[in-house]
Write a structure and sequence with these properties.
Elements (H helix, E strand, L loop, with lengths): L1 H23 L2 H5 L1 H18 L2 E3 L7 E3 L5 E6 L5 E5 L6 E6 L16 E4 L5 E4 L10 E4 L2 E5 L8 E2 L4 E3 L3 E8 L16 E8 L17 E5 L4 E7 L2 E6 L4 E6 L5 E6 L3 E6 L5 E5 L8 E5 L5 E6 L5 E6 L5 E5 L5 E6 L5 E6 L21 E6 L5 E5 L7 E6 L5 E7 L7 E2 L7 E3 L3 E5 L9 E6 L16 E9 L2 E8 L4 E7 L1 H4 L3 E8 L22 E5 L12 E4 L5 E6 L5 E5 L5 E4 L18 E3 L5 E10 L4 E8 L15 E6 L10 E4 L12 E7 L2 E6 L5 E5 L5 E5 L18 E5 L5 E7 L4 E7 L2
Antiparallel strand pairs: 1-2, 3-4, 3-48, 5-55, 6-7, 7-8, 8-9, 10-12, 11-12, 12-13, 13-14, 15-16, 16-17, 17-18, 19-20, 20-21, 21-22, 23-24, 24-25, 25-26, 27-28, 28-29, 29-30, 31-32, 32-33, 33-34, 35-36, 36-37, 37-38, 38-39, 39-40, 41-42, 42-43, 43-44, 45-46, 46-47, 47-48, 49-50, 50-51, 51-52, ...
Helix pairs in contact: 1-3
Length: 765
């Protein structure tokens, strides 16, 4: 009764607040402070009378605890009928996060920086193709995000890989796709505009005569390929048009084209103190990259730099020297004296980058995946590391002597965390990063970026370089740590091992499962991985330990093509759920081979029948310690409305004594799912640990907590004020992972790629 009254009160209070806001817009009520005061007092008296108590006993933002008994629908195992279970909640929780320096608000660290320009005063302008929260292009100063360049997201728009600025405007590369039949200025169907967009220094679009787009701030440079370089000098803007092999020159005010000249494969541009251009000539097939020198008129000058592997960014420092981001094995910023013949005079950063010393270990001077370099008028150095395959933003400022002054991190995108069971939640892993936790610190300050676990130079066939994994399982098998990754579509399960003696903190490719393709063709299209079977499904194991996919390392089979989910239990056994009546596959661990890889095979597979109550199995979690199986999916009682391929189903069911053949449910939980066809409510992911079963919804990102013994709902978690009381949608099938610490505390990790972080709930034990 109280719970229902609270819900009604919350709704009433929200509606009342909305009406007050509407009324307060009138001139009369803006002056009527008395009426506003009386309305506030009415709400306060009602709230106080209900008996809501506020827990102020934490060091963080207070959590409201409701002294009520929430009701959940479960199904009794004896007669399989719906019943109401009640349970008094005893859980207080706090919200925290990891992976982003800033945990809330519109201005947080973007999840990807692909281009960077540093002004003389130390303002950093950035650009990227995509940011989930529409911060493709940002403005940073003194380690803070001070603005975002607006209107780069949605309406078929995206950012790009070039940016520059002068004393009046910011110019970014961007794309504009078609929007169909519209009165606004958009490209026709099937056409993309590759453009330069102009902004004022505050981040607002700056239109110009004959500008294109809905607000007339776009300069269309091509419909064939994107802008790959931008620079200004005086009143001229230089633009790299890759498809046309041209440098186009425009007036910075009128944006009219003045002239153009030919440069093969032009990329990033910078302007030296003599007002001449240095241009990266991107590699083309077997032709290596170079850095070329041109006059403003387009005459090629004799100086060039060819002793470089993969230049990704260039800039001129305050002394007139050329800075080059060398993204090859050196992973350094190189400095060249360019008065006469270019000569390298120094380098910055540890040689070998993140792989120097202890490979993968994060240190101030260890760089990885460089995408931006620059200096300010005082000689301070700015470098962005983006990792490999767009791992995330690591923007740093150093003093002229190389001391780290600040660091801004945005490491998470479509990712989730899991805990190393051996270290009691102190060590956390995402698909590419390793974090060290200190739970005594305030929210958002508990994590330290410890290691980057991907090495593209030693392991160029690492599946993380060729796919987009996002769900993480950390397991200890026979005492050794392993990392298991799957993706948004449950299409594979990747396996990684660790060997500190040879690879430091790097995760070494060890194995991989894929599903069966619906057509008779390779499961993964393209040239990777080499030697994969021509059809069916396969298990790869790195038999010789070199991290490469080789002919004799595949085990082959063929099965039902539609996957529901993967699971790795505490013994290291792999489980797979298929969306069919005999859809449970159990791959018992066959041991660990001499190279340290877990062994699985189709010869040892156990095929198990899906319990009859399910007609579409989606998720599977088995716990050998208690011989308990948790399954979720759609049932005959609560079928799917449409395909809804990405969700966890309509029920979670627990079975005890699973290995002994029991298929009678201990309980059945009805989880959020919209059966009206509007698909506004659905459950994305589940996780079981300790005393609780956790389920998170897709659009609202609310976490439902159930008692693992009884199935009764005990709590509902929502993002707290520490993260702005907000979250993006849950996009992945393992968007929630939970871990029980030795003190009884539960850590619950929830994907939050909208603003580039992982939300962490801490439930008191």
């Amino acid at each position: 009764m109280i719970n229902k009254l609270l819900a009604k009160l919350g709704k009433l209070r929200h509606e009342l607040n909305q009406q007050v806001k509407k009324l307060s817009k009138t001139r009369y009520l803006q002056r009527s402070k008395t009426l506003n005061f009386l309305l506030s007092m009415i709400v306060a008296v009602i709230v106080t009378s209900i008996g809501i108590t506020t827990d102020w006993a934490t060091t963080e933002t207070p959590t409201i605890t409701y002294k009520a008994s929430p009701i959940s629908n479960t199904i009794d195992s004896a007669n399989l009928r719906v019943q109401n279970n009640t349970e008094t909640p005893a859980l207080n929780y706090k919200t925290s996060w990891l992976g982003n320096t800033i945990g809330s608000g519109n201005l947080r660290i973007q999840n990807n920086i692909e281009a960077m320009y540093v002004a003389r005063d130390g303002t950093v302008y950035t650009n990227s193709h995509w940011d989930e929260a529409a911060m493709e292009a940002g403005i940073y100063k003194d380690g803070k995000v001070i603005a975002a360049l607006g209107d780069t997201h949605g309406w078929s728009r995206g950012g790009g890989k070039a940016v520059t600025a002068n004393s009046k405007y910011v110019y970014i590369a961007m794309t504009q796709g078609s929007r169909g039949d519209t009165k606004e200025d958009y490209p026709p169907e099937g056409t993309t505009w590759y453009s330069v967009r102009r902004y004022d220094l505050s981040g607002k679009p700056a239109p110009f005569p004959n500008g294109r787009g809905w607000d007339k701030s776009m300069l269309i440079t091509s419909t064939k390929s994107e802008v790959t370089g931008l620079a200004t000098v005086g009143s001229e803007l230089y633009v790299s048009d890759l498809a046309a092999n041209q440098i186009r020159v425009y007036d910075t005010e009128t944006m009219k084209e003045l002239r153009s000249f030919t440069v093969a494969n032009p990329g990033a541009i910078t302007i030296d103190l003599q007002k001449n251009l240095w241009i990266i000539q991107s590699k083309n097939g077997s032709k290596p990259a170079k850095i070329l020198h041109y006059s403003q008129s387009g005459k090629q000058l004799p100086q060039q730099i060819a002793d470089i592997v993969e230049p990704t960014a260039i800039a001129i420092n305050h002394q007139g020297k050329l800075l080059v981001a060398e993204n090859g094995p050196r992973q350094q910023m190189l400095t060249y004296e360019i008065k006469d013949r270019p000569v390298q005079v120094s380098s910055f950063g540890s040689k070998g980058g993140i792989y120097a010393g202890v490979p993968g270990e994060v240190r101030d001077l260890k760089l990885y995946g460089l995408t931006g370099v620059g200096t300010d008028a005082s000689g301070n150095i700015y470098i962005n590391s983006n990792g490999f395959n767009k791992s995330g933003t690591d923007l740093r400022k150093f003093s002229p002597l190389g001391k780290l002054m600040w660091r801004s991190l945005g490491l998470i995108f479509v990712d989730n965390a899991d805990a190393d069971p051996k270290t009691d939640g102190v060590d956390l892993f995402t698909k590419q990063e390793h974090y060290l936790m200190d739970f005594s610190k305030p929210a958002g300050k508990q994590w330290t970026y410890k290691a980057y676990t991907l090495n593209p130079f030693k392991y160029p066939q690492d599946p993380r370089l060729h796919t987009s994994p996002d769900g993480t399982f950390v397991r200890r098998i026979q005492g050794k740590p392993f990392l298991f990754l799957t993706d948004m579509y449950n299409s594979f399960l990747q396996i990684y091992r660790f060997n500190p003696a040879t690879d430091g903190k790097v995760a070494i490719p060890a194995g991989m499962f894929v599903g069966t393709n619906g057509a008779d063709k390779p499961f993964i299209a393209g040239n990777w991985p080499p030697h994969q079977p021509e059809q069916g499904e396969w298990i790869w194991r790195d038999r010789n330990g070199n991290g490469k996919f080789e002919k004799n390392e595949y085990d082959r089979s063929k099965d039902y093509p539609h996957l529901g989910g993967w699971w790795v239990d505490s013994k290291g056994d792999v489980w797979k759920a298929l969306r069919t009546e005999d859809g449970i596959r159990h791959y018992p661990l066959q041991g660990i081979d001499p190279k340290g890889n877990p062994i699985y095979s189709y010869g040892s597979i156990e095929k198990q029948t899906t319990p009859k109550i399910f007609n579409d199995l989606r998720r599977i979690e088995y716990f050998p310690e208690t011989d308990s199986m948790y399954l979720s999916g759609f049932t005959a009682d609560r079928p799917a409305f449409g395909d809804d391929a990405g969700v966890a189903g309509s029920e979670i069911v627990r079975f005890d004594n699973w290995s002994k053949g029991n298929r009678t449910p201990k309980w059945r939980i009805v989880i959020p799912y919209d059966s009206t066809g509007k698909r506004e409510v659905s459950t994305a992911a589940i996780s079981v640990t300790g005393d609780y079963v956790f389920a998170v919804t897709v659009k609202t990102a609310e976490v439902y907590v159930y008692n693992a013994k009884t199935g009764a709902q005990v709590q509902q978690l929502k993002p707290g004020p520490e993260v702005g009381s907000e979250s993006g949608w849950i996009d992945i099938p393992y968007g929630i992972r939970a871990f029980r610490r030795s003190n009884g505390e539960h850590l619950v990790f929830v994907e939050e790629n909208w603003k580039g972080k992982v939300i962490m709930y801490r439930l008191a034990g």
